[in-house]
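Hi all, posting the design record for the shared folder.

TITLE: backbone redesign
STEP: 1 of 1
STRUCTURE INPUT:
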C-alpha cells in the first residue's frame, strides 16, 4: 500500500535498500524542507535528445538558470514549458549565487542548464554547485548530451584516458601558454575550437603539439549535417584555411606517436646485467632480469653479451 508521503517527485533519485556505510564520508546534513538543484544536460543540436525526465524537471522547478536565457527560451518554447528563467554567468555569479542558495535553502527546486550540452563543461555553474555541496543542498544530475563524449565516441581516436581543455584563449600568447602546458601529455586531448578562429587555433595546435599528430575535427554533432574531418594537425590547419566555416567545432587530438626505444647494444646489455648483479642477483637471475628490462629474449641477450669485447 502506498502512502501519500511515498510518492516521488519528478527527478527524485531511485530509492536504495542498503544504508550508507559508517566508513563512507558523511555529507552535510540536508535542512528539512530545503530545495534541490537539478543539473540538466540539454541538446547539442538535435532537440529530440532532451530526455522525458529532463522535460518533466524543467517544467516543474521554480526557476531555470542558464548563461543565455534567449537560447534557453527557444528550447523551453519548443516543448511548451513556461518555467521562468534567469541568467547565470561569470559576470553575475558573485551576486546571484548567494541569492540562489537562499532560495534553495528555503525550499525552491531550481534547474541549471547549459546553452548546449552538459552544464559546467566550459559553462558557468561551478560556484553554485559547490555552494550547494558545502551547504548540504542536494544536487541531482540529469545526464544527457555532451559534445565532449559525443566527439570522443565517433572520432576513431583512443578515448581513454583523455584531457578536456574547454575553449582555447582567444589571444595568441595565452593560447600558446595553454597548449605548451598540454604538450607533455601523452594521451588524447579534447578542445572546443572557435569557428571565428578555426584556422589560427588549428595552426597553434600544430605548432605546440606537433604537426603530424593525428586529430579529428567534428562539427554540427547530432545535427543533419554532422561532419568529421580527419588528418594530422598540420593537414587540418591547411584544410581550414580554405573551408567554409559553419557551426560549432570540437577537436579531438590523438596521443603522440610512440617513440621506438633504441635497439639494445652489447654495451647496454652488459650494463643491464651488471646493474642487476649490483642489486644482489646471481649471474643467471641477473641475465633474466636484464633480458626482461631490455624487452628481448635471453638468447638475444646472450648473443649481445658475446659481442661485448669486455665479456
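Okay, here is what came back for every position:
SEQUENCE:
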Amino acid at each position: 500500500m502506498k502512502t501519500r508521503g511515498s510518492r516521488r517527485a519528478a527527478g527524485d533519485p531511485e530509492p536504495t535498500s542498503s544504508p550508507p556505510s559508517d566508513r563512507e564520508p558523511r555529507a552535510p546534513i540536508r535542512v528539512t524542507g530545503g530545495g534541490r538543484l537539478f543539473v540538466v544536460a540539454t541538446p547539442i543540436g538535435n532537440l529530440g535528445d532532451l530526455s522525458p525526465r529532463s522535460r518533466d524537471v524543467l517544467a516543474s522547478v521554480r526557476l531555470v538558470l542558464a548563461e543565455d536565457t534567449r537560447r534557453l527560451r527557444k528550447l523551453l518554447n519548443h516543448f511548451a514549458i513556461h518555467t521562468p528563467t534567469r541568467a547565470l554567468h561569470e559576470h553575475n555569479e558573485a551576486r546571484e549565487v548567494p541569492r540562489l542558495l537562499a532560495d534553495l535553502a528555503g525550499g525552491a527546486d531550481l534547474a541549471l542548464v547549459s546553452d548546449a550540452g552538459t552544464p559546467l563543461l566550459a559553462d558557468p555553474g561551478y560556484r553554485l554547485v559547490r555552494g550547494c555541496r558545502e551547504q548540504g543542498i542536494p544536487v541531482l544530475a540529469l545526464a544527457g548530451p555532451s559534445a565532449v563524449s559525443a566527439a570522443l565516441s565517433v572520432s576513431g581516436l583512443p578515448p581513454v584516458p583523455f584531457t578536456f581543455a574547454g575553449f582555447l584563449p582567444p589571444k595568441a600568447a595565452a593560447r600558446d601558454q595553454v597548449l605548451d602546458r598540454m604538450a607533455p601529455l601523452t594521451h588524447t586531448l579534447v578542445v572546443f575550437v572557435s569557428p571565428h578562429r578555426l584556422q589560427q587555433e588549428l595552426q597553434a595546435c600544430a605548432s605546440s603539439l606537433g604537426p603530424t599528430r593525428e586529430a579529428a575535427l567534428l562539427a554540427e554533432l547530432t545535427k543533419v549535417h554532422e561532419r568529421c574531418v580527419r588528418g594530422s594537425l598540420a593537414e587540418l590547419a591547411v584544410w581550414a584555411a580554405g573551408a567554409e566555416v559553419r557551426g560549432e567545432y570540437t577537436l579531438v587530438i590523438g596521443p603522440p606517436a610512440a617513440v621506438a626505444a633504441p635497439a639494445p647494444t652489447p654495451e647496454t646489455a652488459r650494463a643491464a646485467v651488471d646493474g642487476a648483479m649490483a642489486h644482489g642477483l646471481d649471474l643467471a637471475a641477473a641475465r633474466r632480469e636484464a633480458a626482461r628490462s631490455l624487452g628481448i629474449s635471453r638468447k638475444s641477450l646472450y648473443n649481445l653479451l658475446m659481442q661485448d669485447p669486455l665479456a
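COMMENT: The first helix runs from residue 52 to 60.
Let me know if anyone wants the other runs.
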